[in-house]
Write a structure and sequence with these properties.
- By secondary structure, the chain is α/β, with parallel strands linked by helices.
- The chain folds into 2 domains: 122 residues, Rossmann fold (3-Layer(aba) Sandwich); 186 residues, NAD(P)-binding Rossmann-like Domain (Rossmann fold).
- The protein is built from 12 helices and 12 strands.
- β9, α10 and β10 form a beta-alpha-beta unit.
Length: 334
């Protein structure tokens, strides 16, 4: 089934310095095969994008140039391949009838696996083992006596700050390895899922002292900016590890570096940063108890085929007047 002419053209603007996040040509080809009567426009430059936006009915986009949304007065729907949409939510767009969807369901499972991998790496002292491998050094004694002395996840407690697509799947994985799982979610009435306990955000300060692993897995909103600041990091016990697979803006990085350097926290594993790439002068690079991963949480070869399937399903739903999959609540920001 093709979409009606009223939903054409579909403008696609997804560009990134990292090749994985660039919209692939085969994705456009797949959509054209599935919807042969629909016009798909892939601008080659910002100038071409700005020229295409006044006609656009559907926009598939990452970050946009300043003022771009104001040109797109015919829009019915925007799809963000990323889970984050805060960069799109201008006051004008929030107040408009334009619907927004995102890739949260696509990224949830791989990011949850990634978080588990980072937790296991920190628990078992693997960052030091990798550094020793580069030096051809048998580091058994070093690791045992170092800041990442091996321990088990089983029997420890994770606090998942965010219980959406990532946190919900991560809770299931952590229960399978024998951890106690506490969770914070904006609407705890939606249930605990696999977690042992679910609480409202107001309980965060009370839960942090119980956490061996504090995992940030929530979207950026005005309420979540720098959520783990110096005051809250000080509420964590000294054996605690901080894991961030959400967004860099959720965490006060200088405060984290200071707490780790002073021995007030055991470790951190970070996949996202306030500035990416992480600047070379960041003290986080040189802290032996920090695992730095260059924003690879959702990296998987299956990502773009899943994006195409979601977009195709939503084009049909939009044409039929049905609810969209993975639709964003614009007022909440996720």
């Amino acid at each position: 089934m093709d979409v009606p002419p009223s939903l054409s053209p579909v403008v696609i603007w997804v560009h990134n310095r990292f090749a994985l996040w660039n919209w692939p040509q085969e994705a456009t080809a797949e959509l054209r095969r599935e919807f042969p009567q629909t016009e798909f426009v892939v601008p080659a430059s910002e100038a071409d994008l700005l020229a295409a936006l006044p006609r656009a009915r559907v926009l598939i986009a990452g970050p946009l140039p300043a003022g771009a949304i104001a040109l797109a007065r015919q829009l019915a729907w925007i799809h963000s391949p990323a889970a984050a949409v805060h960069h799109l939510l201008t006051p004008e767009l929030v107040a408009s009838p334009v619907r927004i969807t995102n890739g949260r369901e696509i990224h949830g499972a791989p990011v949850a696996e990634h978080a588990l991998a980072m937790m296991l790496a920190i628990a078992r002292g693997l960052p030091e083992a990798v550094r020793a491998q580069v030096r051809h050094h048998w580091a058994q004694e070093d690791i045992w006596r170092g800041p990442l002395q091996p321990r088990q996840l089983r029997g420890s407690t994770a606090l998942l700050i965010g219980l959406g697509a990532i946190g919900g799947e991560l809770a299931r994985l952590l229960k399978a390895v024998g951890m106690a799982v506490l969770a914070i979610r904006a609407h705890p009435e939606q249930g605990a899922g696999a977690a042992d306990e679910v609480h409202a955000p107001a309980a965060l300060d009370d839960l942090l002292p119980r956490a061996d692993y504090a995992v940030l897995a929530l979207p950026v909103t005005p309420q979540s900016q720098a959520l783990l600041d110096a005051r809250r990091l000080a509420l964590l016990p000294p054996q605690a590890c901080v894991i961030n697979v959400g967004r860099g803006a959720l965490l006060d990085q200088p405060a984290l570096a200071a707490a780790l350097a002073a021995g007030r926290l055991r470790a951190a594993a970070l996949d996202v940063f306030a500035q990416e790439p992480l600047p070379p002068e960041s003290p986080l690079w040189d802290l032996p108890q920090v695992l730095i991963v260059p924003h690879l949480g959702s990296a998987t070869a299956a990502m773009w085929p899943r994006q195409v399937a979601l977009i195709a399903a939503n084009l049909r739903r939009l044409a039929a007047g049905q609810p969209l999959l993975a639709e964003v609540n614009k007022q909440r920001g996720y």
